From TrEMBL:
Function: Cell wall formation.
Catalytic activity: UDP-N-acetyl-alpha-D-muramate + NADP(+) = UDP-N-acetyl-3-O-(1-carboxyvinyl)-alpha-D-glucosamine + NADPH + H(+)
Compartments, record wording: Cytoplasm
Cofactor(s) it depends on: FAD
Organism: Salinicola lusitanus
EC numbers on record: 1.3.1.98
Protein's name according to its UniProt entry: UDP-N-acetylenolpyruvoylglucosamine reductase
One Pfam family this sequence matches: MurB_C
Active-site residue list: R169, S239, E335
Amino acid sequence: MPDSIPELQADHDLGHANTLALPSRAERFWLARRECDVVRGVELANRHDWDLTVLGGGSNVLLPPVVGGLTLRAELDDVSFMAGEGGAVHVEVGAGVNWHALVQRCVARELWGIENLALIPGLAGAAPIQNIGAYGVEIGDVLDWVELVDRRDGQRRQLRREACELGYRDSVFKRELANQVVITRLGLTLSTRPSPKLGYGALGDRVADPSSAQAIFEAICAIRREKLPDPLVTPNAGSFFKNPLVSRSLADRLLSAAPSMPHYPQPDGRVKLAAGWLIDQCGLRGFREGAFGIHDRQALVLVHFGGGSLEELLSFSERIVGAVRAAFGVVLEREPRGIQTAAL
Ligand SMILES: Cc1cc2nc3c(=O)[nH]c(=O)nc-3n(C[C@H](O)[C@H](O)[C@H](O)COP(=O)(O)OP(=O)(O)OC[C@H]3O[C@@H](n4cnc5c(N)ncnc54)[C@H](O)[C@@H]3O)c2cc1C
């Protein structure tokens, strides 16, 4: 261990650094407040041939008891706004900026584009990884570029949105570039021109003034607070499963048995189903086994009551996957990401 490097912390506790509160320790931890610190961290990992794990707010990860190699958090916290043409405002955001605080700040400046993404936990740098989305909006709708440090050659580069290959809870960062890059900064384009997106569910009924981004922001915060457990009170990682995409023929078969099943036809011919509804139909809402359970107001959220391990969580989640597969023939896929040093 090169212990002469002050930024490098050995055996760092990550129990409070993941919203599921899974017990975990980082073999080595590196906090990078500037881009040059990210480059140094990446160089260090490369020189010692350590695994490199990038951690943001820990709200979408399943941490193993020990994260080997180097765990790096990019805490660049700068935000800048630049007026463009036709009401466009270009926003540059450091990876370490709290996502919800950014949304709040943009809404306060009467900028439109990310108000529907209020109250999503985590840091801005992680937002493109799964193309965060909520209430009919995804970050991909406003993302222009991502700046990163590439582990493969230690170089900084910028990826345009098209190169990020954003999809539903998906991006190139979960595939070809998984564990290869550290995102340091994002470029977004927002607008001073109102563009309310109220089509999702009953959102429109909850918004007092649709011409106000602040009113939409507040409605979304209120709905989310009603539905989702606060990770600080009840540890969780938000939606534990993705909404499954199934073939039209399977969706038709399921619909003939349950005509009220929520279903959303996709442009590619497949149909998106609501994972929470499927779990609910299996009678599992509120089900608890040991340290883990299914939230009683939102069947998509698995909660940790304390004292549990990753292994127990995975076996609990497999029971849910098995129940849904048996009842509907649909295979649920996990949303939070496993860290490579665990046997996941
Ligand atoms: C209560 C709750 C509600 C949620 N609601 C939503 C929702 O509505 N919509 C939604 O999309 N998600 C939701 N999530 C999931 C989560 O908040 C998002 O995925 C968020 O973007 C994760 O950010 P984070 O900083 O916590 O990332 P982490 O959990 O720390 O990391 C997530 C992944 O990104 C990688 N990563 C993190 N930072 C970087 C970086 N700088 N460079 C490269 N890779 C990086 C990590 O290695 C990991 O693979 C919710 C979670 C919770 C707990």
